[in-house]
Amino acid sequence: MNEQQNIKEGIHKLKRTVLVVDDELINRELLGMILQQKYDVIYAENGRKAIDIVRRIPGRISLVLLDLLMPEVNGYEVLKAMQADPKLRKIPIIVLTSEKDAEVESLQLGAADFIPKPYNMPEVIMARVQRSIELAEDSDIILATETDRLTGLYNKDFFFQYCSKNDVYMPGRAMDAIAVNVSRFHLVNELKGRSFGDKLLCALADEIKYFAFQSEGLAGRGGSDLFFVYLPHCDSHEDFLESISDAAAEIAGEGKINLRMGVYQNVDFSVSMEERFDKANIACNLLRKSASEHYAIYDSNLHEKELFAEKLIHEVEAALAEKQFKVVYQPKFNIKGDEPRLCSAEALVRWNHPELGMISPGLFIPLFEENGLINRLDNYIWREVARQIKSWKVAFGVTVPVSVNVSRIDLLAPDYEQNMVDLVRDNSLQTGDMLLEITESAYTESSDRIIEIANSLRSRGFKLEMDDFGSGYSSLNMLAALPIDALKLDMKFVRRICENAKDLRMVQLMIEIASFLNVPVIAEGVETEEQYRLLKENGCDIIQGYYFSKPLPVDQFSEMIEKEGRKRC
Q1: Which superfamily, per CATH, for 329-568?
Q2: Lowest CB count within 10 Å: 310, 312, 457, 504, which one?
Q3: CATH top class, domain 154-311
Q4: What is the DSSP annotation of 140-158?
């Protein structure tokens, strides 16, 4: 038995209520006698009282029997009022009249049927009442099953059916399949709450529905934050993306909501509707790896990339279990004295895949950040780093602090702080031995909660480094209040300081800010002697980059620690 049949059988057991509206008492009583064996009957002697009743208890009224000629408010006015009210227009109305000319006008105003006076055929009245109620209820059931309850858009199955009908009714018309979703929607729900997420989806659905209607297209919901749109072909739909992005921005207020749009242009009518939107969704999903691009057009190469991404996601658990992920260490040197001195390192990850070889972090890190797997990978790295710091401490009698990346997802995990405390304790380390790198954007998004967590971590002795400083939107007031122990310059500024005076001045300003905050400055991506000299002259404290060393595997970094130790003896 399908869903519609279940709903229909449940409704069939209920006793419906019929409202009889007639200014003549004898007519009301006569209709009541005919209907009362099967229905609950209530009465109104004029149109004004009828409108009051249906507005007060709209969900209880299954049908209205409506006389047209009445004092105060006549039947035509009742029809117009109920059709104008979204809550009332679904209630079927049967007009009671003896005038043939009134029948056509009543049907045009929204009446479901009419019953001629006098009422000398009770079985006809009962049949028409029953049929009108059944048709209205069937319509509600179909509407409930074909549309998404939250947004009111067609659900995926009905959407595909209507799109297929569109192709039949508009043969030869070039069409585009479009997929739209919200970047990191799971984080929107986590950070702002499910009610905000629902409000955002409804606002997007309204804008998408309006745009589709204006463009002679169709819109549906593909699930969660995924929307499908079937539109007549045009070279670009970026104006559509802009309009729905504006709707998202209005809901988000000061927050930032990014949307992605994938387009399969000039669809191939020989493939199924589902395949067409799969292609659009492939284009959409590949934008997960880009922070700046929000619009993509499907081509055959995208499918191969999507398969590659799915393969990586599918094999993460096995890769973690088999230790395919390798931690490498990029040395960091303190340059404040006469000679650079090894002071710490940054832990970086590499994936040595048994089949694909070495996979660039630029491929898998954004992918894992998008789907939440980054937390699993980060925990693996932290465990490896803690174990290695302990190993160096035992082997060389020194502690080499190591910076590890901590994402916003990590920080917001309910057990994050305790896990870190347990990790350093279990490896006989101090909390200051693991330096926690948090990006500037993590501080500025959901700042209150992140700052609260960061303060708690510092109170336990952890040192926090703001990564990618200069790439976010921190205000000076915010910086003064942020719990940080070091500022790490975004490498794009370092890369151009020798050629671009503005970038050099930006670095100088950021070093001045760090000096004001009384925290050291770390520069990454230093590759040349000239960059090193400029940074040293301008007061930079710590440097990492290929000028000193590339990221090293454990054995090579261990040799560096041993060599540095001998130099100090």
Answers
A1: EAL domain (3.20.20.450)
A2: 310
A3: alpha beta
A4: HHHHHHHB-TTT-SEEHHH
